[in-house]
Amino acid sequence: MKLNLGCGGDKRPGWINVDKYPDFAPDQVADLEALPWPWADDSVDEVMLRHVLEHLGQSSDLYLGIIKELWRVCRDGALVTIVVPHPRHDSYLNDPTHVRPITPAGLELFSQAKNREWREKGIANSALGLAHGIDFAIERVDMRPDDVWAKRVSSGQITTAQLAEAARQFNNVISEMTIRWRAVKKRP
């Protein structure tokens, strides 16, 4: 099963398109903040969260509950694609329905391998994967530059290294991130 969660108008053939609002005519109406979710354990092969996760889980407990539900319904190796606005871009900052920034570093807190590595090195990052018995591994992160910055790179005005440095220092450099996450469910 493939779930397109919070589909809005982006309905995908071959997916179960899910939204909270019946006006979008999804295949299934479900509120992702109402836990538990209506899908069985280990039943999902792929999940799409396109401009959705930044709208969910304003409280830490609710956000963690949503991540736990995501892990529960995913099979081992399930791909979760998360597309979000960059938290330092106006498209994130201007929307009052955005309740939390989603970043690769924040999602990495749910990797048990990273949690163990940090413990061994004495790094005080929150070991959320180990603490909550869930495990997701970041497979890939793609950053889409804002149009102004993309034109600077394509014209040769700046290098990709300079773009990366600008993204660390300034707002409105990266407009959107796509993070590919894998569910890790090792069975004995």
Q: What fraction strand?
A: 25-35%
- The strand count comes to 7
Structural class: alpha/beta
Query: What is the CATH third-level topology name?
Result: Rossmann fold
Helices and strands, in order, run as EEEEHEHHHHEHHE
Q: What is the CATH level 1 assignment?
A: Alpha Beta
Report the average pLDDT across residues: 97
- Give me the CATH superfamily: Vaccinia Virus protein VP39
Figure out the total of helices: 7
Shape: globular
* Radius of gyration computed on alpha carbons: 18 Å
Salient structural properties:
seven-stranded mixed β-sheet, 30% helix, alpha/beta, 7 strands, globular, 188 residues, single chain, Rossmann fold
Give an account of the 3D structure:
With 188 residues, this protein is α/β, with parallel strands linked by helices. The longest helix is centred in the middle third of the chain and has 14 residues, at 60-73. The chain has one domain: Vaccinia Virus protein VP39 (Rossmann fold, 3-Layer(aba) Sandwich), CATH 3.40.50. The two termini are 24 Å apart. The protein is globular and about 50 Å long. A 7-stranded mixed beta sheet has the order 3-2-1-4-5-7-6. The mean pLDDT is 97. The chain has 7 helices and 7 strands, in the order E-E-E-E-H-E-H-H-H-H-E-H-H-E. Strand 4 (44-50), helix 1 (60-73) and strand 5 form a beta-alpha-beta unit.
